[in-house]
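Exercise 3.2. Students should predict the tertiary structure of the chain below and write it as C-alpha cells, then compare their answer with the key that follows.

Predict this chain's 3D structure.
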Amino acid sequence: MLATTIAFYVVGTHVFKWKKRAVLPAIGLFFVVDLLFVASGLPKFIDGAWVPLAISAVIATISLTWLHGRRSLARALAMDQEPVAEYSTQRKPVPNPTGRSVLLTSDPSGIPFVRRHLWMPAFLEDKIVILLNVLPASRPYVEQVRRVAIEQLGPALFLVKASFGYMETPQLTYILRACDKLDFNMNDEHTTFFYAVPAIVGLEKGGMHRGGRALFSWLSRASRSLVDDLEPPPDRRVGLGVEVRM
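Answer key:
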C-alpha cells in the first residue's frame, strides 16, 4: 500500500503534471497510515518478512535495468537518424525505382541508418523507401480495416503506421493484407526489410554500471524482438548493427 501511494504521487506529478502542493495533502494521510503499517511489520523482518522484500527488489532491479537500457537504445537510434524533412528535401525523384526498402523504426520522425551507415544513402537512392512504424493500441484487438495508415512524406518516401491490440501478436502478414486493400504494394521479390540490431560497446559517462549492462545484455538476448514476431522473409531481411553506450 505504501508503494501504491508513492506510485500515485509519481504518476500525478510526472505524468498528469499536477502541482505538488495539491498532490501532497491528498496523499499525506494515506502515506502516514501506510508507513505505520510498515513500521509495525518491521519486527517480523528477520523471521521471514525479508523474502517478499527481496523478491520485490529483484523484480524492481530487472524492470529499471530494462527501462534504462531501452532508453539508451532509443538515444542511439535517434543519433543514427536523419530528420524526415531534411531527407525528403535532399532526395531526388525516383522515376524508375528498382525495389522497395522497408525500414522498421519506432520513431517515424526520422530516417534510420543513414547517418552512421555511410553506404545506406546510396543504396536507398533508387528505391522506394517505406518507414514501418508498429504501434500498440489501447484496446485488445484492432479491426483489419483500421490496421494501417499510409502517408507520403516525400518523393518515393512513405510512412506506414500499423496498429495491433494488446491481445494480438504483430504479424507482417496482417500489415501486407491491409496495405493491399489500400492499393499500396509493400511486398514483392525486390523488397528488403531493414531493422536495428543493438550492440552494447562501452560505458557512457555517468551511465549504467557493469553489472547492469550485463543484465540488460542478457535480457535483450532472452527477449523476443519485434522482428521475430513480424517474421519478414528470411532471405530479404537485413539487420544493421547499432552501437549502444550505457
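Discussion points: The CA atoms of residues 194 and 238 lie 5 Å apart. The chain has two domains: 2-78, 84-245.
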